[in-house]
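Late entry, evening session. Most of the bench is empty. Finally got around to the prediction I had been postponing all week. Sequence below, unchanged from the version circulated by S.P.
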Amino acid sequence: MYSIQALWTAAQRKLPLTVVVLNNSGYGAMRSFSQVMQVRNVPGLDLPDIDFVKIAEGLGCDAVRVTKSSELAPALKRGLAYAGASLIEVTVDSAVPLLYAKKG
């Protein structure tokens, strides 16, 4: 969500660009960082139910959602073969492993 508007520019300029979004229903890196900092209930980290495929299509891109690993290779082939901007939304588990750790 940091720069989703860049998809519009890519579509308008007909850039041969494929964007892969790992959708974990929120800001996973920030969730992990808040765990390390021992900060609980940080608002705005959960972003459930955002449909990146519809957003991308609305901005003029080709788009597809991947929910199984077996779908990834065909989606990448489709995106890379497309003449303009495309998006691949890959849904992943929202459980966040500890990405940052204090050095002991």
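Two things to note before I forget:
The CA atoms of residues 14 and 84 lie 5 Å apart.
Strands lie at 18-23, 62-66, 86-91.
Will write this up properly tomorrow.
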